[in-house]
Amino acid sequence: MVNDTALETLYKTVDQNQDDYVERLREAVAIPRYEARDIGCHDMDGVNLQLPPIILGTYGNDPNKKTILVYGHYDVQPALLEDGWDSKPFDMIETPKGQLVGRGASDDKGPIIGWLNCIEAHQNADIEFPVNLKICFEGMEENGSEGLEELISKEADKYFKDVDAVCISDNYWLGMTKPCLTYGLRGICAYKVAISGPGKDLHSGVFGGTVHEPMTDLIHLFSKLVTPSGKILITGVNDDVALLTDAENQMYKSLEFSLSELHSAIESKTTIFDNEIETLQHRWRYPSLTLHGIEGAFSSPGFKTVLPAKVTGKFSIRLVPNMDPNRVNELVEKYLKDEFAKLGSKNTISVECLHGAKPWIANPNHWNYVAASNAVERIFKCKPDLTREGGSIPVTLTFQDALNKNVLLLPMGRGDDGAHSINEKLDRSNYVQGIKLFGAYLHEIASCKDE
Amino acid sequence: MVNDTALETLYKTVDQNQDDYVERLREAVAIPRYEARDIGCHDMDGVNLQLPPIILGTYGNDPNKKTILVYGHYDVQPALLEDGWDSKPFDMIETPKGQLVGRGASDDKGPIIGWLNCIEAHQNADIEFPVNLKICFEGMEENGSEGLEELISKEADKYFKDVDAVCISDNYWLGMTKPCLTYGLRGICAYKVAISGPGKDLHSGVFGGTVHEPMTDLIHLFSKLVTPSGKILITGVNDDVALLTDAENQMYKSLEFSLSELHSAIESKTTIFDNEIETLQHRWRYPSLTLHGIEGAFSSPGFKTVLPAKVTGKFSIRLVPNMDPNRVNELVEKYLKDEFAKLGSKNTISVECLHGAKPWIANPNHWNYVAASNAVERIFKCKPDLTREGGSIPVTLTFQDALNKNVLLLPMGRGDDGAHSINEKLDRSNYVQGIKLFGAYLHEIASCKDE
């Protein structure tokens, strides 16, 4: 049973100290990007650089309490006033509407400072901290989390040994008004398909019509991968896609999302589906295939009557449960080679899978999610949206695979925070309510019956 | 009637003076590229540059003789020893096998010096020059003959007024041993097809599967233009292709050409046809369509999970008689728009024809060709191959259209001379026999009955 009185006291403390918390976020935003230095691992130019430290911390060690691992990152995207910011990106300001504007305010300094404020609020309010907390804050998230996976694997049985569940606050609400919990991400398989013909680029006047053109072959192959309405044509690839259950479909009906938001995000109305539900399902729970481009063909402005000798097409497939990257690779390779054989070309083909990442999905009925959902109801007086995302957050899968524990994505910011964009912001209310949410979530965990 | 004795004397004179002629070619090769200078027309950077002069000259003015215009160019492709030449490109050498190696030896200084030697040989041998000769030697051929078309149009009724036929020596034998006359060139229509969707490039994870992707649309359109075996699929485009007559087909059987030469030129065996005749017919007398590349998609090495917002495909069609660029443009635009409509995409398309050039074909039974053919038989003791080419030599059409006279392409060099490549050469025998050929050609013209 959650001690409601204690929580009310906690909320009051958070409200009373919110200006201090904002001040701390301002200080955090003002800290320049950590510069990699000295001897560590190789950077792009082959220079040895020391990676920014991964900060591990433990708060509490009571064998009778659950242990929750929270992850965040203190590195941020680059930002310059000249990029078009309305204020200096590393001097956080608060607008009259209560938006805290600055690089990293939402991604991801707000959440990590929020966790620290949450601990302090318990101390100030003299309330017992409900769980053992472990933190893992890294500084390479915006650069592929280099070094993190190795550390997590190495420490899985040591520092991370007693962790019961993981909470990551590094994504966003679907819209602007309703909180969400995120329980799924798509995976990816990335491919290169090279078609080789002549030994060198040729003049299309002299040779056009007499040689098998690699570009024509590649275009025909590419046209057999996906339809203009997004249906993947590769034999067998859709077979492993989890069926949409009634319960899951039902869940989509309550989500806070409108096509007009999507249209303003993509700056056009060129969406495939006319309704929100199918749109979100195709972003989250169905695979997609994107043709990224072609290397080796003429790609500059202007015109050149070249007949390219070798062209390399690049495409990727977003994976969803229960697709397996290895199985998808087999199917893609077989399909491309079969279709190529049908072209009757004397050119040669090679298919390469560059990398594969599994889709991630968590059980949203796990106590970790139930606690978070209850906490949302306490703070926001509504049930959270249960969302997934179309892209990937690799650390999520890393934690789940290395620790074999439930992972929850619990966002603090809104869908319009503009992470990676100019004028990134975090609403003061999201920040303050978010600190309360973190507290309520930990108290809900402590009172969970289910293990 | 040709005066055979006079011709024999001419040949002897040419043979006796051949070392002088080689020396003159060496001097011509050594003359550096003419540098554009001062005020003339705009170059690429918007600077005013004076174009290299177009040299017009008249030799003879006898109203009882035919007037023949000969065209050549004195500018050459750039060349550096570091490009891989075995000798300094502007210091012409003669190899033990009798190859005159140097930049421009074959393209096109050999032929233009050859015409001048031909005039001098007549003087030395004290033989009456059989025609009035007009020369037009330009210095911008390797840069699109800028300024030439304007001059030809302006002078059509003045300097070029009395011209009866045109002879251009700026191409090559089909192979290495048999001379040819060239009577046809393909034309070209060049196109850009742009597909626009979102207002900016998107992340394929977040948006893949929910928006109509411009790249997918373009790939589908491109796949409907041409088959991997080179068949153009655009409705109506093949309708105007002249039918292959028995006589024409027969002509292909005597041509000196082998697939193995083609294979070594393209450095692969990826030719569509297994025989020489179909191969040459598809180079010369059937249209072809080449997909050159795509602007706006990801074209660099490596990988990027981008969903491109706007992609522009570039392709061109080589035209043959009786295709008309304007008609082809209409058909291409209609076809692309019809096929795009079938895709059911919300993206938008735009089609642009960048330029169109008509195919060129001359009547190989005209006295200009008969004279050249007879001259070849005199010098080489065989009938010349009657060839066409797959690319275009724009000046050919310019002369034909402006002067409305028969144009003959009469090559001096062999198919392996390597114009534009390293170690460009002209065989001494081609040079010396070429000078005799020019003479015999002019004498044959003088004795022609047909007008």
Short characterization:
Two copies of one chain form a homodimer. Chain A contains 13 helices and 19 strands.
What does the model show?
2 copies of one chain form a homodimer. Chain A is an alpha+beta fold and 451 residues long. Chain A has 2 domains: 269 residues, Aminopeptidase; 129 residues, Alpha-Beta Plaits (2-Layer Sandwich). In chain A, 34% of the residues lie in helices and 22% in strands. Chain A has 13 helices and 19 strands. Chain A has a 5-stranded mixed beta sheet with strand order 3-7-4-8-18, sandwiched between helices. In chain A, helix 11 packs across helix 13. The radius of gyration of chain A is 25 Å and the shape is elongated. About 2% of the residues of chain A have low confidence. Chains A and B meet through strand 10, strand 11, helix 5, helix 6 and helix 9 of A and strand 10, strand 11, helix 5, helix 6 and helix 9 of B. Chains A, B: InterPro entries: ArgE/DapE_CS (IPR001261), Cyt/Met_Dipeptidase (IPR051458), Peptidase_M20 (IPR002933), Peptidase_M20_dimer (IPR011650).
